[in-house]
Amino acid sequence: MSVVIETKGLSKIYESSFRGQDVHALKELDLTVKSGEIFAYLGPNGSGKTTTIKMLLGLIFPTSGSIEILGLKDIASAKVRQNIGYLPEGAYYPDFLKGEEILRFYGQLYGLGGKKLEIRISEVLEEVGMTHARKRLLRGYSKGMRQRIGLAQALISDPQILILDEPTTGLDPIARKEMRDILARLRDRGKTLMISSHELLEVELISDRAGILYQGVLQNLGTIDELLTDRDLTIEVASASESDLSVLAEKGITQEDRVAGKMILRVANTLSAYDALEICKAQNLELVSVAPRRETLEELFVRTVGEAQNRSIA
Amino acid sequence: MKKYPNLTLAAIMCFAILVGSIQGQRLDRLFEVEAFLQWMAAAAANERLDFDESTEHEDSALYSEVVAATQDQVAAEVTGELEEGHNALSEALEDSKYDAFLYKMAKSDELKPLRDEFLESLRSGKLRYTQNVTYAAVVSGMEGQGSVSIFNLFFGFRKVAANFVWLQVDRYWHAGLLHRMIPLMKTCVLLDPGFVDAYLLGSWHLGYNVTASMDFTPYPLRTWSDKYQDCIGDQQNYYYIAVDFLKDGIRNNPRNYKLYFDLGFSMYREKLNDTENAVKYLTRAARLPHERWVPRMLYKCLEENGDYEKALEGWKINLERFPGHEVTLRSIERIHGLIAERNAQQARMKAKGTTDPVERENLMSEYRAHVAEARAIWEKMNEPFSVGRLLRLDAIDRADKGLYLEAVSLLDKGRYETGSLFDEFSNLIIEFKHAGGLPLSLSEQKQMIREEESTSCIGMPESVRQERLIAYQESQQPTI
Amino acid sequence: MSAVVDYFRGPWCIAVFTWREGIRKKTLVGFLILSLLVIFGSFFMSSFLNQTTGGGQVETEIDAKLIKDICVATISIFGMLITIFISASVVPNEVENKVVYTVLSKPVRRMQYLLGKFMGVQLIVLANLLLMTLLFISAIYIRQDEFPKLLLWSALLTYFEFLIVSSFTFAISCAASSAVLPTIGGLFIYLTGNLTEYLSDVSNRSDEAEFFSAMIGNVADALYNILPNLQKFSIKTEILALSPGAPLSPEKYEQIPNLILYGIAYAVSGYVLAYWVFRRKEL
Q1: Is the predicted pLDDT of residue B386 greater than 50, yes or no?
Q2: C6, C148, C178, C198: which sits with the fewest CB atoms below 10 Å from its CB?
């Protein structure tokens, strides 16, 4: 697999002229995205994901470091631009236009026109499943439809690389699923996708590789499986006494939280789900629910950083 | 561009600003030339129309310099006859066909020293006829204009301001605050010197509406004005303010016939009974693009001024333009009649003056022939005016036979039937009464006193007084 | 040649897009309606005069003059407001709603993008001006029953006055993050552009002998020569004073192209400034 996006020592410092305290949005980022993969670019809000993407697109300029896209240093060149589709986060599309009109506008910016453009518009609308809304005004679109039309505009030139900034944020679960399906289809057709997100679960199902960005530093770059080696379980019970808790703790089940009289217990990852349930049953605890623990990216990150630190000490 | 983008952009921007700046300077020069031309037009109008007002301003002197400097060029270009005492430049400035030539001349390098002199005089406030110069860049820094010229006010919307001032003038008129109208009217035209209708309506208010409620001022109570060479009473005071207002308007808009027409007809003929000046301004009005009634009024004034031949000529031209025009046809008839009457009168006066009986008889037969001619015309015309004229001829016949009482009664009938002949017949009645030794009525006695009084007023210089006295005595000589 | 066509294709699309979006702006429609109201309202201005006795001919001509002057002022003021609002808002709005990201990530250079936006603004301004002028012409036509040709000259010059203000407002808007500041800036440019003459007055009044006074005078003089002077466009009202059928005088024929060039020169400098600001702007 060839490398399509590569950054070396990419830094961005936002100079603050008033307080004299500069913001290091990105520190010495080395990033590679390979052809044909879905690269999940993860990180909590404000970690520098959007900054990186904007730099890749030439919307802002790096303080230091270099960017190469498709082997070219001039990322504003037509060849690069022809091959990048970009879906910004929460972009607004003029709602007085029809679906096809907005695509026509963006297509024309690529120098497309005439019959070729019309065919292409039909294709991308089909691709994002919006053919039915082709002649409707954007005013009447739902949020999911808007996001899909946004994706369609990113696809209009049939680019090799797609950069999607938070593509599923703000969508309802059904729309999210549809979006994920579309993205998986695109990957299957050989596109390279770079998806930024602050929610791990959104991308874990489809991405091949992920990088976690925290405070401007890329902390972990590997496959999703590597990142998610440990996964906890939480058990919710109606109530538990101090003695019950101490028994459970011995076996590896700790109290995590108490919400509205109910107790939330965390199961260590050495224990299987069945074992944990057996232990609870043995203590006669009233079971409310069992769920996989949704670890936040930040926690994952803190843990991975902690582990990395521990490793370095050892 | 690639290597030094900031430098390149800065250079392009500076270049664009430089071009703009140069263009700005060039426009200023063009505005100055136009201002120069506008001033020349105002000064030329002033000269053409002999508005010789003694002021401390240097307009006339500077204008003479311009005339001298451009004499050859203008002479080569401008064709046509000139009125005596007028120069070709002044005439050319009235005629739009010379516009291109005059502009080229005003712009030429040869006139640059004079242009500069004009600008310097303008800015130091030495010129008067510059009200129509409205370019801020030209008048900026002008003395007496305050810190910045009035044209900078209102963000260039001073014409709108002028309109609102005019609305206020109108309001004052309805409120009867005449004393407030005049300064506002002047403000209005200062804001917009091209507001021709303000001059027209303003002068009309002054000449007609303001004076309508004023009493006639007897001559002994009037004051002599050197400026207007006339005895000024209450009404005359406003007539002359109106005249001056219109003259200002003419200087600022020398090509608008309406101003000349109003000055000539509405003011001089109607209000000041000065047909000579009326003819002068109406002639000007008729030379400019005008409405069709302008020349007709001119011919009428020519007729009233006794210039029958010119009037006839004019009416004939009018007939060519408007074949079958009723008023024109009747006017031509009438003037023929008046010419016949005048010829008869001349023959009669000559006959009176000669001692040779043969010659006298010849002249009298000539007289009778002319009278017959006039009679034929009047009888054919058959309208109040001609009936009046016929009565006059009859009256003279009776008087010749010594039947003065009959003559007087005929004229008395005539003057009430034909209003336009009232004054003429009244004078003739007095003359016949004198000749026939008949007593004068009280009003006739008063009229004679008034006429005698009109020879003098307060502050009238002795030379003028003598002139008027002589003129009065001449007017008392018998005419028949 | 085809390279040039290619270069302008993108900007043209953006311009048309901007135009379509711009004409739907509520402020713009509001101003337009207001100006149309004033233009029609000028019909009734004359009712203030109707009581004046006599002179019917003169009355209608004062009417016509009133309508003309008010309409030209209205077109100037409202047209200028529309120009300023549009010029100030197109770029910041697009940055705000992130459309600019989708456009600039296409094969569109920033120069082309700005060109497109600027052309779009001019399309909107021209469309407005045309609409108002058309109404104005019909107002005069109804009143006086003649086609005021000179008004078209006046409208043309008005456009180039707008162009100067538009380009500098546009430059400010490229530096700003919202439309508020550039709008205020645009109004400021319009006001000061009309008051440039004061600078020449300052320099006229400076005292050569005194150092500070002389220095201020020189600075004022320099600024006077550099800054655009919108008062130069006052000939647009001078033209209207001519009688409707009259041809333009030769001096006006020479002034008009020079004035247009003047407008273009400053517009170019404003546009270059806009690009200079926008070239390395972090979006």
Answers
A1: yes
A2: C6
The residue type found at A196 is S
Tens of pLDDT, residue by residue over A186-242, are 888 889 999 988 777 777 778 888 888 877 888 777 776 666 655 677 788 887 778
Q: What is the pLDDT of residue C120?
A: 95
**C13 to chain A: which residues are within 8 Å by CB?**
105, 108-109
- What one-letter code names the amino acid at B23? Q
C residues 192..231 contacting B (CB < 8 A): 194-195, 197-198, 200-201, 204-205, 225-226, 228-231
Closest CA to A271 of A300, A286, A290, A251: A251
The interface pTM score, or ipTM, of the predicted complex is: 0.89
Task: Decide: B and C in contact? Rule: 3+ Cβ pairs under 8 Å.
Answer: yes
| Cα gap B441→B433, rounded to integer Å | 10
| CA atoms within a 13 Å half-sphere pointing along the CA-CB vector of B361 | 2
How confident is the model over C96-104, as a mean pLDDT? 89
Interface check for C269 against chain B (CB to CB < 8 A): the answer is: yes
Query: What are the Cα distances from residue B77, in Å, to B94, B97, B114, B452, C251?
Result: 14, 11, 20, 53, 19
Contact A94 C99 (CB under 8 A): yes
pLDDT in tens, B80-99: 766 666 788 888 888 888 88
Between chain A and chain B, are at least 3 CB pairs below 8 A? no
Out of B150-159, B367-376, B393-402, C112-121, least confident range:
B150-159
Task: Work out the pLDDT band at B409, boundaries 50, 70, 90.
Answer: very high
Whole-angstrom Cα distance, residue A98 to residue A104? 10
Question: What pLDDT, on a 0 to 100 scale, did the predictor assign at position B147?
Answer: 45
Q: CA dihedral in degrees (A111, A113, A115, A117; nearest 10)?
A: 60
Instruction: Go through chain C and tell me how many residues it has.
Output: 283
Which of these, B143, B145, B146, B190, lies nearest to B166 by C-alpha position? Answer: B190
pLDDT score, position A121: 92
Which of C61, C65, C273 to substitute to test the interface with B, most B CBs within 10 Å? C65
Tell whether A72 is within 8 A of chain C (Cβ): no
C62 touches chain B (CB under 8 A): yes
Q: What is the per-residue pLDDT across A107-128, written as a single tens digit (0 to 9) for each?
A: 998 888 889 999 999 999 988 8
Q: What are phi and psi of B32, to 5 degrees?
A: -65, -40
Between the two ends of chain A, the Cα-to-Cα distance in Å is 35
Interfacial residues of C (vs A; Cβ cutoff 8 Å):
6, 9-10, 13-14, 17, 20-21, 24, 97-99, 101-109, 280, 282-283
Residue B208, CA distances (Å) to A80, B212, B238, B294, B423 in order: 84, 6, 9, 20, 22
Supply angle C-alpha C34, C36, C38, rounded to 5: 70
- Compute the average pLDDT of residues C258-278: 94
Beta-carbon separation of B140 and C55 below 8 A: no
How far apart, in Å, are the Cα atoms of C194 and each of A22, B39, B285, B315? Answer: 42, 25, 39, 54
Contact A106 C98 (CB under 8 A): no
Beta carbons of B314 and B295 less than 8 angstroms apart: yes
Q: Are residues A311 and A259 in contact, defined by beta-carbon separation less than 8 angstroms?
A: no
